[in-house]
Amino acid sequence: MKSILLINGNDPKALLNATLYGADALAYDLHESVDEANKDAARLLLQEALPFFDYGGAGVFVRINPMAEGGADDIAVAGKGKPQAFILPRADVQSLAQADAAIAALEAENGFAAGSIKLLPVIESVASVENAAAVIAASSRITAVIFSAATFLQELGAPVSADTAQLLYARSKVALSARAAGLPVFDRPWADAKDKAGFEADARLARSLGFTGKLAANGGQVPLINEIFA
Amino acid sequence: MKNVIGRDIPEYIEGYGEVRPFKGAYASIDSRTRTTITRRSVKPGNKLEPGETKLLASIEEAVKKTGLKDGMTVSFHHHLRNGDYVTNMVMKVIADLGIKDIHVAATGIFACHEPLVEYIKSGVITGMSVNYISPGPVAKAITKGLLPKPAVFRSHGGRPRAVEAGDLHVDVAFIAAPCCDNYGNINGTQGKSACGVLSYIYPDAQYADQVVAVTDNLVPYPACPIEITQDFVDYVVQVDSIGDPNGIVSGTTRVTSDPIGLKIAAAAAELIDATGYIREGMSFQTGAGGTSLAVAAEVKKRMQAKGVVGSFGAGGITAYFVEMLNEGLFRALFDVQDFDLVSVASAGSNPKHMAMSGSLYGNPHNCGPVVNNLDIMILGATEIDTDFNVNVVTGSDGTIMGASGGHNDTAAGSKISIVVTNLLKGRLCVLRDQVTTVTSPGETIDALVTDRGIAINPRRTDLLEKLKDSNLPIMDIHELKAIGEKLAGKPDPVEYTDRIVGVVEYRDGTVIDVVRQPR
Q1: Per-residue pLDDT tens for B256-282?
Q2: In this structure, how many other beta carbons lie within 10 angstroms of the beta carbon of residue B166?
Q3: Of residues A101 and B44, which shows the higher confidence score?
Q4: Nearest residue of B to residue A219 by CA position?
Q5: How far is A2 from chain B (nearest CA, A)?
């Protein structure tokens, strides 16, 4: 698995076209793509939509909200559509334990095999980066790890810039920790769809640091991710 | 009666006349007689009586000089596209003079022609024929049945055929002339309203009873270069402006950045390559849409990789095709209209960038139109059915939203015609058991390339043989339709009245379908 494509979980047209880009996995987003007023509708939409489509072998994930911001509701409602995994933003040891418990309850209530639904933590807080190995070990459901930069830079008090050197330590730390645990690790999404050169350079740098794949912010990024991380 | 593709068509249509039913794409290729016309002759300048000059003071004077009266046909062309002022200016004068029952034979109608709706309502305009119509107020008015006689939809090749045959007799042709001298020599590439070639109006210049040039750029005699010559022009009128430059051409035409469009384009190019059409001397045409241009971009890459030099690119020309010409990927361009500033400039300066008349482009009843020399044609579709019949005239709700343009001409002439489209449009599946309106018959459509699979017309056993070991997602068209319908469902059929609001002529003048008024 090299590419994980983020899809707005509340956009029916995006759901309809999600499988067309050739991504190895689809991450239906309930977090940043969906505003607060539409979270409930999006959860219900995913509950219905997830079992409907033919994914042709692609992974099917749901990026939930942080556990303190509605993640448990996301798991309980959208989870009835039985995604293969949940992506947990701002993951730390405590929130991963909460997510693990919520998923266990979902599995039990819906007759899903225990342990069948996996977890992908997004390591993005300063503390989680520094304690990456512990975070990754927090749940037996963890099958891959994701690094994201925005929260990390914010907590660090560093300005957001195009200088990738400011992320070098964090990316390396997360990549090393994941690889040491024998897990695939995915780099941050690149939001600026028009900056293709910046996206490609960022992906190649991530590849050189040991990342095994990258999140795609739009379908047009998928082919290059698949090529660079092949 | 039912025509050869099973469309239910009356033998006689009120306001249209006797119906010649469609009998097959190539059933009418035989010898034809062209019509004869009577044209005015002009005395030498020093022998003219006062008031006999070609250069007139106003459109009103021109309308009066031509003797335009109730029941006549006036023609216009659409090279000024959505910036055209001439059609509206002329029709206002006609309306103000109290003339009624006019047939407007326009090569194209755009949203800018909204004022025509009032003339339809007031009885000034009672009939229309077009080769292209964009979704907009006039198309809606026709759909609603406001026009007393059915509109006639022809192709870019079918219209000049009709003009030359006398099926469409033009009493007065009004030519929007971006550059013109006082004796009627015209070109379209110079002046503030430059739009490129004026190809679609050439047959009208030759076969209309009278021809009026309307210009906002009167130049000293002779205009140079000359695209339409003085021997075809009766009168010249100078006006302040013939068009809005913002609506005439796009600043740029671009390859799509939509990843799904790019995916479709890549698949189409691979199909073209796998079937052996990327080869020395190849010829190629696409529309100006972003996905079509993306196919051109993919084909270009493959031409460069193989070191192939093509024969020609054709049709409506964009900057992308000009770039391919200038990079040596084609030896020439055949041009019927120009979509952007780069192609306008090229049309006026590069001898390898050649204008072709609508007749040369696609008329099936001459000694061979350029579409007959075309290898690869990339087409669009509003709907396509499991017999590969294509609709580009009506939406799935029965609303008129287009006309053939060059669709059925190029589909019939090219060696491989490929429809590229998203399988789902507006959450509807484009594949149907039967299309709402047939524009191009399935026997002329060779392949359908969508984002969710490719279908090859089973008539093309040669293509299927070449593609048997291909990795392309080729499937039966019914299978592809099932994929689309699983996602989008099957819409309820639209109900229609018995009123026929449009007659769709195939390029040979037979009736391939009719448009009925939706309930």
Answers
A1: 888 999 999 999 999 999 999 999 999
A2: 13
A3: A101
A4: B259
A5: 18
Q: Chain A partners of B487 at a C-beta cutoff of 8 Å?
A: 16, 53
Cβ atoms of B244 and B83 closer than 8 Å: yes
Q: Which of B259, B427, B452 sits opposite A21 (nearest CB)?
A: B259
The pTM (predicted TM-score) of the whole model is 0.91
Could you give the maximum distance between any two Cα atoms of chain B, in Å? 77
Cβ-contact B362, B410 below 8 angstroms: yes
- If you search the block for the tokens 């390029």, which residue do you land on? B507
Strand B511-518 vs strand B496-505: parallel, antiparallel, or unpaired? antiparallel
- Nearest chain A Cα distance for residue B307, angstroms: 26
As a residue count, chain A comes to: 230
Span B337-347, pLDDT tens digits: 999 999 999 99
Nearest residue of chain B to residue A223 (CA atoms): B259
User: Which residues are CB-contacts of B164 (< 8 A; sequence separation ≥ 6)?
Assistant: B34, B35, B203, B207, B359, B363, B365, B366
Write the DSSP string, B318-367.
Answer: -HHHHHHHHTTSEEEEEEEEE-BHHHHHHHTT-TTEEE--HHHHH-TTSS
CA distance B131 to B448: 23
Handedness of CA B516, B443, B429, B155 (dihedral sign): negative
Q: What ipTM is given for this predicted complex?
A: 0.80
Cα radius of gyration rounded to whole Å, chain A: 16
Dist. CA B164–CA B207, nearest whole Å? 7
R_g (Cα) of chain B, nearest Å: 23
| H or E element that contains A75 | helix A71-78
**C-beta atoms of A13 and B427 within 8 A:** yes
